[in-house]
Amino acid sequence: xxxxxxxxxxxxxxxxxxxxxxxxxxxxxxxxxxxxxxxxxxxxxxxxxxxxxxxxxxxxxxxxxxxxxxxxxxxxxxxxxxxxxxxxxxxxxxxxxxxxxxxxxxxxxxxxxxxxxxxxxxxxxxxxxxxxxxxxxxxxxxxxxxxxxxxxxxxxxxxxxxxxxxxxxxxxxxxxxxxxxxxxxxxxxxxxxxxxxxxxxxxxxxxxxxxxxxxxxxxxxxxxxxxxxxxxxxxxxxxxxxxxxxxxxxxxxxxxxxxxxxxxxxxxxxxxxxxxxxxxxxxxxxxxxxxxxxxxxxxxxxxxxxxxxxxxxxxxxxxxxxxxxxxxxxxxxxxxxxxxxxxxxxxxxxxxxxxxxxxxxxxxxxxxxxxxxxxxxxxxxxxxxxxxxxxxxxxxxxxxxxxxxxxxx
Length: 409
Prior knowledge:
The chain is 35% helix and 23% strand. It is an alpha+beta fold. The longest helix is centred in the first third of the chain and has 19 residues, at 41-59.
């Protein structure tokens, strides 16, 4: 019996040792983001709102604003709350912004000469007292509203932004550039793009699909447009090396995009918050950015959290990072702070959270001071993007903090 059991023991071991080694196959997945040109109806509205905000801050840095704009065929409407010492001509600013975007021909159904209505009033005292009358023991103002905000960074691009968003944004930037420099004179202001990235696990494999839809004059044929877009937009993309023979391209897939802009579709401030943030790769709060001064934590805290997330990923303690913060109206200190590194952290997340609390002041007044958010800098964020662009204070990480955090690994 002993010999028989011994035989079966070695026989089973032999089967196990001779079995093929099973290597876990990483999951293949696809992620898609879109972007829109500055001539898209919603982006027109964002730019008008932020152009008005910039003018308020240019004259009175203490201005408070929550400006909303809607655009439609031959008409735009500006509404909202403003408290300021500035002398404001909102209609003049709006018409100038529309003209700068490229809507100058009334025959296209929307232009800088379209009909308008302006309905701005002073901010509610019940809201403003949350900022004006609520200060902590260090004299810091309270949050202008309750809410949740998010910040995000990932090591997929040199800007520490998601690849799908950056690639689609570059395509729309090129559409606008080729229209404005006259290289493709038949292009009109409205347009959008979409990019799908293929992953294996967390690793980027390739760009699977590219979609570009651009408004155009009636004079151009579909064949010429598609050929020109491939040559002047797709081939000029810095992400072209990730496209291969199997990448699918859909250029004006319906075949015609002559009627566009507000003449074809209404636009509204704050309706492109996925475009404004991280292309759907991260959560976003309930509030939009454009038209709001930085006492509104919807905007200022989102900028601060982007800076923190970028600091964390820059340090190498994580490859990906999302932060959430929450506020109560009139209260300076956030009621909660959360760090999520999606399993990529090289140290305990509790240590990262402690580092954030010890080294970043997330009270609204401190954010405004530290990031210089009383300056008239916001129109270009509505035009070209809030995150991943050089020159903005929230995109500049402190090398000392990066080094200090890296030292925890």
